[in-house]
Specification:
alpha+beta
Amino acid sequence: MSRSSFLVTQDTPQIQQGILDFYLKKADRFRAYFPGGEELSGSRSDFLALEEVSVQPWSGMVGCIVVEGTLTSAAIALIRERGKLDEDSCPHPLQLWFYELINDTEVLLRIADFSVWTGFATLDELQSLEKEKIPVREWHEISSEPEEGATSLPMLESLQELLIQAAKELEFKLRAGGL
């Protein structure tokens, strides 16, 4: 059954936790992306310390690595802990910047730039999510297909993410009084 791509528009912690839990049950692997430098890579050492991981350069950004591994109980706990925004919706130093949950070679859930959620779901999965009180009818279907086994994004999407990232970093610095 083919998957459709959806921009997940709910940002309440309860809904996001339900979506994350749903996909953690379906996934068997994860990918976590860490750029060079400290600001967006606070959790890098924790993910590198997990068992059953591999590390590769990521072609989507210079100096970036992707850590891919099996969703062990330790990996699941780390993703749950490091995937959350602070209560004021600001990224914290250990928060995951970009990660994916994968089943075999299919991306099931992608969280980019801390808070841009993209779900890849079959009709049966959408119905299951609805039964779990996830308002999938509010999701916006988008035309991109999940990459199978690929770790790079198309050039324009990568550029857009870099611009969004730069804007959020600037906002974060301004709120912290760093500029």
